[in-house]
Amino acid sequence: GNSSEDIWSGFYKKTLPTRRDQLKLMFPGLPPPRQLPEPIADNMIENCIGTISLPLGLALNFKINGQPLIVPMATEEPSIIAAVSGAAKTITHNGGFTTSYTGNIMVGQIQLLDIEDPEKALSVIQSNKQEIISFGNQFCQSMKKRNGGVIDILPRILPFDKK
């Protein structure tokens, strides 16, 4: 056949230059892999002392939401990409992966200490939930306009051992 599965068949047996040529044919606009410049690395993390190189390979046989996909992977571990590709092939033959997205959700926590009556505090928070949410959203109005901001408050009492 002429499926994308056939195109990648035996990819692991090909030489490195041949695999690169095939990648260029399949993805003509894809730039070649390159090193992360040290000034960028230094801005990304604290106490940067340099960068390291890892082999970059392709995990094949993925079908995600009905689309055949190839997943680039950087790893020093032998056989990881082969194992991932093998598992993806099995899963693809059984329908593939299906994903869903529920939106970006961040969770913040506030801890109240030394509360004389935790049950009463919990009740007051629960009974004023909408007012607290509205108050919080005053500080992130642009997020609220994009269906974000403070969405919910879930107060709870945690067990505390004074030992």
What does it look like?
The protein is elongated, with a radius of gyration of 26 Å. It is of the alpha+beta class and 163 residues long. The mean pLDDT is 90. Helix content is 37%, strand content 10%. Strands 1-2 form a two-stranded antiparallel sheet.
Short synopsis of the structure:
With 163 residues, the chain is of the alpha+beta class. The chain has helices at 4-8, 16-26, 38-44, 80-93, 118-127, 129-137, 141-145; strands at 56-64, 67-74.
General shape: elongated
Instruction: State the end-to-end distance.
Output: 71 Å
- Rounded to the nearest angstrom, the radius of gyration is 26 Å
User: Helix/strand-derived class?
Assistant: alpha+beta
Q: How many strands?
A: 2
Overall pLDDT score: 90
Which residue ranges are poorly predicted, with pLDDT under 50 across at least 5 consecutive positions?
none
**Sequence of secondary-structure elements:** HHHEEHHHH
What characterizes the major β-sheet?
2 strands, antiparallel
Number of helices: 7
Helix content: 25-40%
Question: How are the secondary structure elements laid out?
Answer:
Blueprint lengths: L3 H5 L7 H11 L11 H7 L11 E9 L2 E8 L5 H14 L24 H10 L1 H9 L3 H5 L18
Tags for this entry?
two-stranded antiparallel sheet, alpha+beta, 163 residues, 37% helix, single chain, 2 strands, 7 helices
